[in-house]
Structures are given as C-alpha cells and as structure tokens.
Amino acid sequence: MDELKALIRTIPDFPQPGIQFRDLTTLFLDPRGLRDTVMAMAEPYRNRSIDNVAGIESRGFILAAPLAVELGTGFVPIRKPGKLPGKTLGVEYTLEYGEDRLEIHSDALHQGDRVLMVDDLLATGGTMQAACKLVERIGCEIVGCVVVVELVDLKGRAKLARYPLTSLVEFEGE
Ligand code: AMP
C-alpha cells in the first residue's frame, strides 16, 4: 500500500486555499498502480454475492467500472443533479458550504439487491453517506463501502459506522 500511496500526488491549495488535494490521476496513469488498486479494492468482496457496484461521480466511476468487471457485476452511476437521462431518485446532503444532491436512475437497482459503494476518497463522509441513503431507500443492502484514500482526521468513518468500510491508503491532515 505504500507503493500506491507514493503514486498519489498532493496539490496544495486546490480547489481553494487550505485544501490539500489528493490527486489520484498520477496513480491511474501508472499501469501497475491502477491494476493493483482495483485488485486490492476487490479483494475483501470476492465471493460475497454482490449484485451491483455503485460509483459516485466522477472519480468514483473510474474505479467502480473496472471493479464491477473484476467482481462480475453490473455498474450503476450515482450522479450530480440533472445528468441522468431517465427517471431519477435523489438525495440532498449538506456540504461545508451549502447543499448538494446526488441522483440515481430509479430503475437501476431493485429491492434486495446487494450493492458495493465506491468512491475515490473519503473526507467528511457526507458524500458516501448520502449515496448509501439513496441506495437504501430503494431497499438494497449495502455490502460495503470502498475508497482508495481515507482522510482519517476528518472522521468520515464515524458517519458510516453502519457499513463495512475499506480504504487502501490513509492520509493525516485535511
Ligand atoms: P466528503 O463528502 O467530505 O467525504 O468528500 C468526498 C468527496 O470529495 C470525494 O468524492 C472526493 O473526490 C472529494 N474530495 C474531498 N476532499 C478531497 C481532497 N482533499 N482531495 C481530493 N478529493 C477530495
């Protein structure tokens, strides 16, 4: 995991002053890094009867699609408002400044489906928590949440205490 961590670039003050942006594009650019990341994300969830992998826009998509292929499941996008063409269900959630919303196609998942939730990074946990609520509202069971990076000091894990959560790499600080 130290090798994966070394492939993640930190950009200070992006997108605003004070944020240490953990840039995974450098990890995705590395063929072995990309492959090892997807395999490590898949490992705890093999043979767990997962029906679908749900990825959160937009960096979650990059990981969720190959993870779905690896686990032999379908892929479901969870998107920012107004992007999905079909009928949607949505959930509002609070950000540090203001509100945001996530949407899913209302016919993409069904009651009782076992779903694995994927994003690139867990910060405060608000985004993942909102995505989980949306999927649970349909009546699905969340088998787990998986991210590459966990910003441990922001304690997002506490918001997701109801679900198994796996992260590959931890960073201290915000
Ligand atoms: P949160 O809802 O606070 O857990 O934020 C998670 C979402 O914001 C993820 O989709 C990340 O892609 C993005 N994000 C938040 N903080 C950072 C950061 N320091 N570096 C890169 N992405 C971040």
CATH topology assignment: Rossmann fold
What Rg is obtained from the alpha carbons, in whole angstroms? 15 Å
Domain tally: 1
Count of helical regions: 6
Quote the beta fraction. Answer: 25-35%
Overall pLDDT confidence: 96
Looking across the biggest beta sheet, what order are the strands in?
A: 4-3-7-8-9
Q: What's the CATH architecture? A: 3-Layer(aba) Sandwich
Q: In one word, what is the shape? A: globular
- What ligands can be seen in this structure? adenosine monophosphate
Q: How far apart are the first and last residues' alpha carbons, in Å? A: 20 Å
Quaternary structure classification: single chain
- Let me know the number of strands: 9
Largest sheet: 5 strands, parallel
CATH class: Alpha Beta
Structural class, judged by helices and strands? alpha/beta
Characterise this structure.
The protein has 174 residues and is of the alpha/beta class. It has a single domain, classed as Rossmann fold, CATH 3.40.50.2020. It contains 6 helices and 9 strands, in the order αββααβαββββαβαβ. The protein has a 5-stranded parallel β-sheet with strand order 4-3-7-8-9, with helices on both faces. A two-stranded antiparallel ribbon has the order 1-2. The longest helix has 13 residues. Adenosine monophosphate (AMP) binds next to strand 2, strand 7 and helix 5.
